[in-house]
Design brief:
The structure holds two protein chains of two kinds. By secondary structure, chain A is an alpha/beta fold. Chain A is built from twelve helices and eight strands. A six-stranded mixed sheet of chain A has the order 3-4-5-8-6-7. In chain A, helix 1 packs across helix 2, helix 2 packs across helix 3 and helix 7 packs across helix 8. Chain B is mainly α. Chain B is 73% helix and 0% strand. The chains are: A alpha/beta, B mainly alpha. Chains A and B meet through helix 4, helix 7 and helix 8 of A and helix 1, helix 2 and helix 3 of B.
């Protein structure tokens, strides 16, 4: 028998095998299989599995783990603090090379899965450190990171890609695309079912799949594949849960124009679509009026008279809120503008609970194509509100540098959605109340 | 067949992760807890990464 392959399925991982002929006792020093019988395990730089100096290959062989894990760890240590560079250089200087022939990787696990797992876990760590805003606040950076990761992945696996025939690669690609499409259908179905109130059922189904996976672990792991549909189901349910999307209020476009306080309902709700409540023709009586708005996915526009002070308590799972130029956007958005209340002035207190979308409280209705760039179906809010805090901010510059120049020029010619009177309504109202109080005291 | 071959660590890890993930989502849907996007992304990517990593680290014969 020649040099024994350490990845032989007959050989259990170190520390897990039963002692027997040719195997060390548990209390013996660990060894690696080698020609001529077991030899003491020694840290050597790999000459058969190397990218630069074989340090990671040697460490992987020494610890019986995939060298990819060592490489990713070294790169991470190099990026965060530079320790990885020193460790690598020290190993390069002091660890002798392994001159034995026929060196293979220390373990034979799926390298693709190992790399993918490590990358995904890294992204999870970054996302956790960034409180979940990684993909939104640093989207270009994340794209660069993913592109670099993809490039490294291809570089590491290029030999395998080149080894396979073109026909086989195409067949696998087609199968992968078909599976992705099927997964997409399942995910979309789970999303709608969850948004319509079936989220608990689907979450329970995920738990059942997990139990089946656990049971399959004792039967050789024949149902490993169940992990994939479990994750495919978990993603849409998670998005619906995080955004708290409820599509039980119908869908479509709704427009309301109350002209009297009696016509203004205390609550409006829509599952998905667009809803506009134009209150400009309505004369608000002095005092506070409450308005509850709910939207699963879509846009809500509240058009209020200029002399009404608006306070808001808005929560949006993912999207944008602008209440008379007081704005916030992103994920898990909370906008609370709880100003001191007075019974003598007209005041509208808006409570909004939205899943995904935009809430606008303005003094004049936006144009129909407001927030949609050329060829874009999704809303793009923020910099269009002239005269507000976002007008000259970074978002405005990004907007001008992007594909929305034409729309931006058009909006420049439109009157602002929020007037100076509307912006100052609360202050002016309070000032008049203060003045009235002073007069009374006099 | 040896005991090591009849027991699959990857399925064990995947099962535990999927049960935990599904349990958290179920609790959210039942209004016991509130999962926001700030927790969702690390949760989902962490679950997928743990399963992939377990699969990658598990010793299997080279093709």
């Amino acid at each position: 028998m020649t040099d024994q392959d350490p990845t032989n399925p007959q050989d259990p991982p170190p520390g897990q095998g039963e002692p027997g002929p040719g195997r060390p006792e548990p209390d013996e020093a660990p060894t690696v299989p080698h020609a001529g019988g077991p030899t003491p395990r020694k840290l050597l730089r790999s000459t058969g599995d190397r990218i630069i100096g074989g340090v990671a290959g040697g460490l992987g062989r020494y610890f019986a783990i995939d060298p990819i894990i060592v490489r990713i760890t070294l790169v991470a240590l190099a990026v965060f603090g530079g320790v990885g560079v020193f460790v690598y250089l020290a190993a390069l200087l002091f660890v002798p090379p392994d001159d034995r022939p026929d060196q293979g990787p220390a373990v034979g696990g799926s390298r693709l899965a190992t790399i993918a797992g490590a990358v995904v876990l890294g992204i999870a760590l970054i996302a956790a450190l960034g409180n979940g805003l990684f993909f939104f606040d640093a989207f270009p950076f994340s794209l660069v990171l993913l592109a670099v990761g993809g490039g490294v992945l291809y570089w590491l696996l290029r030999d395998r890609v080149e080894e396979g025939g073109a026909g086989r690669m195409v067949a696998r690609l087609a199968l992968g695309v078909a599976l992705l499409i099927a997964a997409g259908f399942v995910a979309v179905g789970a999303f709608w079912a969850s948004a319509l109130g079936g989220g608990a059922v689907i979450a329970g189904l995920i738990v059942v799949i997990g139990v089946l996976l656990l049971l399959s672990a004792f039967r050789g792991g024949r149902a490993r594949w169940l992990a994939v549909p479990a994750l495919v189901l978990a993603v849409p349910v998670g998005i619906v849960s995080a955004a708290d999307i409820k599509l039980d209020g119908g869908y479509g476009e709704r427009e309301f124009r109350p002209t009297t306080p009696a016509q203004l309902a205390p609550s409006y709700r829509l599952g998905a679509g667009a809803m506009q409540i134009d209150m400009r023709a309505m004369k608000f009586p002095p005092g506070e009026r409450r308005l509850n708005v709910g939207m699963g996915m879509g846009q809500v526009v509240l058009v209020v008279p200029e002399d009404v002070c608006v306070t808001a308590d808005a929560r949006v799972g993912a999207g944008y809120v602008n209440v008379l130029d007081r704005e916030n956007g992103g994920v898990d958005v909370d906008l609370r503008d709880d100003r001191p209340s007075t019974a003598a002035a007209p005041r509208l207190r808006v409570s909004a609970d939205m899943g995904m979308g935009a809430l606008l409280v303005v003094n004049r209705p936006p144009p129909e194509d407001f927030g949609r760039g050329p060829g874009r179906s999704g809303p793009q809010y923020g910099p269009q509100m002239k005269g507000g805090p976002g007008a000259g901010g970074p978002k405005a510059r990004d907007f001008e540098d992007g594909d929305f120049d034409d729309e931006h020029q058009e909006l420049e010619n439109d009157p602002p959605l929020t007037t100076a009177r509307g912006e100052a309504a609360c202050d002016r109202t309070l000032a008049s109340v203060d003045a009235a109080s002073s007069g009374t005291r006099r | 067949m040896s005991r090591a071959r009849s027991f699959d660590t990857v399925s064990l890890v995947a099962g535990i992760v999927v049960i935990a993930l599904g349990g958290l989502l179920l609790l959210d849907r039942l209004d016991v807890i509130d999962i926001g996007f700030g927790y969702l992304f690390p949760l989902l990517t962490g679950a997928a990464g743990a399963i992939l990593l377990a699969g990658g680290l598990a010793a299997r014969p080279e093709r």
